[in-house]
Amino acid sequence: MMETGDCACGQTSVRDEAAAWFVRLQEPDTGADEQQRFDAWLNEHPQHREEFQLLQGLWSAADLLSTPRLQALAETPRPRPERRPLLRYAAAASVLAVALGLGLFSGLNHPGTYRAEFATAPGERKHVALPDGSVLDLNSRSRLQVRYERDRRIIELSAGEAMFSVEHDASRPFIVEAGSGKVTVTGTRFDVRRDATQTRVAVEQGTVKVQGRAAPDDLFVSLTAGLGTVVDAEGKVQPAYTVNPAQLTAWRNGKLVFNNASLSEVAAEVSRYRDKPLIVTQPSVAGLRLTSVFKSDDTDALLKALPSILPVTVRPLADGSQEIISR
Prior knowledge:
The chain has 327 residues and is of the alpha+beta class. The chain has helices spanning 11-24, 32-44, 46-62, 67-73, 84-101, 245-248, 263-271, 283-286, 299-309, and strands at 114-119, 126-129, 135-138, 143-148, 153-165, 174-178, 181-185, 189-194, 198-205, 207-212, 221-224, 227-232, 241-242, 255-262, 278-280, 289-295, 312-316, 322-326. The chain has 3 domains: 11-101, no CATH class; 114-245, Jelly Rolls; 254-326, Phage tail protein beta-alpha-beta fold. Helices cover 30% and strands 31% of the residues. The termini are far apart. 29% of the residues are buried.
């Protein structure tokens, strides 16, 4: 049996695969299927992730070096068995030659551009590593577009929810545009949820600036860890209020957490994880409150448990959806 630290393929071939994937992910037409294949390769063995992350580090550092220095790094030194740490860096630098050869770096302070789109189906979650070292976690029914330019990194969250762990880069702010709201950071950890009528922002670490997309630069609400806000459909940002980031992002661990939530809110949330919606039409039922925790990948269990918690029953409808009614 292969031990955890061993790879079925040689280190050189893994490095070549990492370089090939890195170059492929720079293409503007990278789709969801390609991203899924990359995720599968990345999780296949710890060495895959190690080699890819090393290449990401070289990519992030490249704009700090002059063109001659980049070219020098791309020339792999002759191996010296007694200097393994140096060899590791030199060998990794040889991977940089792949990117250099394809023109992904164009010189000092000019990092390459990057475009991609990611989406999740009902009940699906996705973990995405971006070229600069930032990481995205997408919730169910989410869709976003990524566009990295010379002086900024832009994410358009067109639907759903995502958790952002942003790699610090003061020269290129990280901007999330969602509905009528806009979030700007240089490096931090925060969650953005886009609903039909509003956008919610919650900060777990660092500081973010939240404003309406059409608002002037000097009109914004600043959030630090443990604070959140909501941007309405007109782009008005509410004052900051205290939030529980762990509870709001429990979906990352496959949990649905309801704390004195109305059944109308519960139905709306559960519907995000099902092919067909959960409906509440009776006002007396919609106003009932629920406090509990369920698994997001087993919402049928929630429906089975509801009648034992509240005076309701769940009935199937002809189109495959389900309705919560009074018992």
